[in-house]
Amino acid sequence: MGFIKDQLDGYGMSEQTIGYLSNIIMVVWIAVVCILANFITKKIVLKTIIHIVHNNRYTWDNIIVEKKVFHKLSHLVPAIIIYYSASIFPAYQTLIEKAALTYLIIVTITALNALFNAFEAIYRSFEVSKIRPIKGYIQVAKIVLFIIGGIVVISNLIGQNPLIILSGLGALSAVLMLVFKDSILGLVAGVQLSSNDMVHVGDWIEMPKYNADGDVIDITLNTVKVMNFDKTITMIPSYALISDSFKNWRGMQASGGRRIKRSVYIDTNSISFCTEKMIEEFQKIHYLTEYITTRVDEINAYNMERQINTEIKVNGRQLTNIGVFRMYIHQYLRNHPKIHKDMTLIVRQLAPGDNGLPLEIYAFSNDTNWGVYESIQADIFDHIFAVAPTFGLRAFQNPTGHDITRLKESTEYVPEY
C-alpha cells in the first residue's frame, strides 16, 4: 500500500485522491491474486491430486474425488488470502476478517459434509454395509456438524465466545428435544436395529400396519425405505421397527427353502374302503407298488392272526382310499426334484369341517425365488387335483349355479306323448 501511495504521490495528486485510488488499486490487486491463486489451485494442484488418485491401486480415494471434497477445499485459498489481507484496510479490517472467516467456516463445513458422504459411499462398497448400515450415524454426525458450524458462525459475527451461545442453548433443550424428537428416536432405534441384527438392506420384511411388504432398500436416521412388490415405496419410521412387530423373511432366504402350506379339501362322501380291484390298480402306480404290497401283507397277517372275518369291511384292518392317497402324495413330494429333501415334509389330515376333510401339504421348495416358488406350488396342486379321481376321491366344492342347473335338468319331468 505504501509503495502504491508513493507512486501516485509522484503525479501530484491530492491526498484524498491518492487514498481512494490506492484502495481501489489494492482491491483490484488482491482480487487478481485471489483469481490467480484459485486458478493455480484448480488447474494445477487439483488436477495433480486427481491424476495421482486415478493412477494408484486404491479405489476409495476415487470416491473422495467423485464427492468433490478436494474441489470444495480449493475455495479456501482465496478466503485465506482475503483474511490475511484485511490488515491493509485498517478501517474495515474487522469487517473483512469476520466475512472471510465466516466464508472459511462455511467452506470447511461443506467440505466435511462431502467427506461424510464419501465415507458413507466407501463403506457401502463393502458387504458389511448391508449388515451394519451407518447412514443413520452419518446423518447424526452431519446434524452435529451443522449445529456446531452454525454456532461458530454466529459467535464469529457477533464477536462472542461459542461457549456462551452453547450455554444459552441449555435453556432451549426442551425445544431442541421436541424439534429433534424423530432424529433422537431414530438414532436409538438405529443402534438397537444394528446391535440386535434385526434388519439389513436387502431384507424382505412384512409390516401390515404400514402396508409394507417388500425389500428394504435404504435405512436412514429417521426412516426405513421399503420397495413393495408392486413397486410402490413405503417409508417406515425407524423407531416403529422397535416399538411394533414386523416379519423378516431373511431366515427363509438364507435357509434355501420356502414353505408350502396348503390344503386340499376332500368330499367326505367319496371316502371308502379299498376294494380288491382298487388295490390291484393302486399296485400299478409306481410310487405305491412297494407300499401297497407291504401294507396288504401286514394287514392280511394281522387279520389272519386274530381270525377276523374280512367279508365285512368294518372287521379288522382295511386300506382306505384316503389313506392310500395321502401316502401317494407323500411319496410324490419326496421324489419331486423341486422339494427340499432336508426340511420338514408332512402330508396330514386336519379336523373335518363344513368344507370336507382338509388334507394339508406341509413341505419346503428348494428355490426361494418368488416366481419359481409359486410355479412349483401350482404344479404340485395341479397334479394332486388331477390324480384325486384315480383314488375314487372328489375335491370338495360348494355348489355353483351350474351344479344347481344340472340338478334341476336331471330331475325335470318330461311328459310322453
List the helices and strands and how they pair.
Layout: H1 2-9, H2 15-54, H3 60-66, H4 69-73, H5 76-84, H6 93-124, H7 128-131, H8 135-158, H9 162-169, H10 173-179, H11 181-195, E1 204-207, E2 212-219, E3 223-228, E4 233-237, H12 240-243, E5 247-248, H13 250-255, E6 258-266, H14 276-283, H15 289-305, H16 321-334, E7 346-349, E8 357-365, H17 370-387, H18 401-411
Antiparallel strand pairs: 1-2, 1-5, 2-3, 3-4, 6-8, 7-8
Helix pairs in contact: 1-2, 2-5, 3-6, 5-6, 6-8
Describe this structure in words.
- The protein has 417 residues and is of the alpha+beta class.
- The chain contains 18 helices and eight strands.
- The protein has helices at residues 2-9, 15-54, 60-66, 69-73, 76-84, 93-124, 128-131, 135-158, 162-169, 173-179, 181-195, 240-243, 250-255, 276-283, 289-305, 321-334, 370-387, 401-411, and strands at residues 204-207, 212-219, 223-228, 233-237, 247-248, 258-266, 346-349, 357-365.
- It has a five-stranded antiparallel sheet, with no helix packed on it. It has a three-stranded antiparallel sheet with strand order 6-8-7.
- The radius of gyration is 41 Å and the shape is rod-shaped.
- Residues 182-250 form the Mechanosensitive ion channel MscS domain.
- Residues 331-387 form the Mechanosensitive ion channel MscS C-terminal domain.
